[in-house]
Amino acid sequence: MKKIVILLMAGLAVLLVSCASPPEQPIEEPPPPPPVDTKAPLPAKELEEAKSLKTRVDNNELSEFALEDYQQAEKSLQEGEAAYSKDNAAAKKALDAAIQSYKAVISKAFPLKTGRSQAEVDTIKANAESIKAPVAMRAEYAAAKAKYDAAVAAKDAGNFEQAISLFAEAKSLFQDVYQKTKAKKEAAEAEIKSAQDGIKDAEEKAKAADEEIQGGGE
């Protein structure tokens, strides 16, 4: 009987020990494979085109002629650059918008700037003609006029960048013609005045001499 009790107690002790031991850890499953990258491709071409158009607009100082479109283009470009390589679909959308806005600036601004450039040349050209530059500075005036005519032809053909450049050259030439004609005119006027003053002085001296002769005769 004692042996049975001892055996029962030993079995109970083994059972208690087995219950107290920690449960077996589950086998860890390997991590799932990374999801397939479905991001849109980098809009590198769009970024390059947007930056190229911006450079063209800035170099030609066109923003003031289409300010609203320019500001929208700048905003879209910044958004496109911020999303670039992070959300390429959003970046492409923003860059496409920037491209369209920069093109709108170019389309609107070039004719306006060309018109202003021509108006500036027309003013100095008229000033030169008003003081007889075509006669006083015949060759120089002809060179300026040829440059002006080339600018007008470029404008009429829609070559606005070339026209703006040619108008700038024509303006410089007409300013030079005007200044030289003005200096020549002022020199001629001063010479005439000097001659007139000399004649007047001679007449006054002659008159004084006559009066002296007549006074001596009395």
Give an overview of the whole structure.
- This protein is an all-alpha fold.
- It has a domain at 44-185.
- The chain is built from seven helices and no strands.
- It is rod-shaped and about 150 Å long.
- The termini are far apart.
- 24% of the residues are buried.
- Mean pLDDT is 85; it is low at 12-17 and 34-38.
Task: Please write out the topology.
Elements: H1 2-20, H2 44-59, H3 67-83, H4 88-130, H5 133-136, H6 138-156, H7 160-217
Helix pairs in contact: 2-3, 2-4, 3-4, 4-6, 4-7, 6-7
Care to count the β-strands?
0
The total of helices stands at 7
What assembly state would you assign to the polypeptide chains in this entry?
Answer: single chain
Structural class per helix/strand content? mainly alpha
Strand content: under 5%
Mean pLDDT: 85
Key traits:
single chain, mainly alpha, 218 residues
Give a nutshell description of this structure.
The longest helix has 58 residues, at 160-217. Helices cover 81% and strands 0% of the residues. By secondary structure, it is mostly helical.
